[in-house]
Specification:
TIM Barrel, two-stranded antiparallel ribbon, 318 residues, alpha/beta, eight-stranded parallel β-sheet, 11 helices
Amino acid sequence: MDIKTLRQTVQALVSPGKGILAADESTKTITKRFEAIGVKSSESTRFVYRKMLLTTPGIEEYISGVILYDETIRQGLKNPNIITGIKVDKGAWKLPGFEREKYTEGLDGLRDRLTEYKNMGARFAKWRAVITIGEGLSSQVCISANVESLALYAALCQEQNIVPIVEPEVLMEGNHDLSRCKEVTTQVLKSVFDKLQIYNVAPEGMLLKPNMIIPGKESGEQASAEEIAQATIEAFKEVVPQEVPGIVFLSGGQTPDQATENLAAINAIAGPWELSYSFGRALQDEALKAWAGKPENVKSAQKVFLERCKKVSLARSG
């Protein structure tokens, strides 16, 4: 592990005013999004769409890195001014014996896949674990299994000088309130960093990609951006080491405006880390709808995309 190389990549990814575009949707996921706008999902249409995003003029002012999917990185899609990253997990599946919870797979052969992706130009990677809140959930078994995989993944990445983005996502689905989300998120993050320490993962050579502290979608609770920000910063100050250079939030099903507003409120309070973004839908949704699969809409969709990227970038200054 070359900690200097890892630090350089991390610092570039969380440069002031910049964040990460998550364009690593699986084929199944992006197919659903294409179907919603009446576009047939194929290798060529997926290539055209993602090329549209990555070739948007001026995008490098707001986007430091992009997380790609296996298909996309093999298509050779790159922007020379944006750092290439890669999703390396193989999705979340039912946890045996705990049918309401999920476990992320993908450790088998990961060392070799990381070597291959590095040779393709990847300088950072991402692994997502999902934690569900519900009656009797989340179980310690689910948390422990996912945390173990996250730590092994992070250690394997750093071994090859690839920056690991560690993503333990506490899902918004459910009727839990703000305080319950804060409780579970704090528990999960504490477990994550305890395990990362055991596996000798250097905190200064990684990034954390967590959820914001938000009430469950079915709770009926309407928390303000300021309340969300306060709960989020309080939880993170309790368990996230100061040595971690940056926190790149996921949008987690929020609308583009919600995610942007909440990020601005979080940065208004701030903390010892760079507080940035690694948004997928919150950056892409408006552009996807504006594009609608039509070549004549590319320029207007790129304009919409650039405008959202600028808004989210400005949110980094609170």
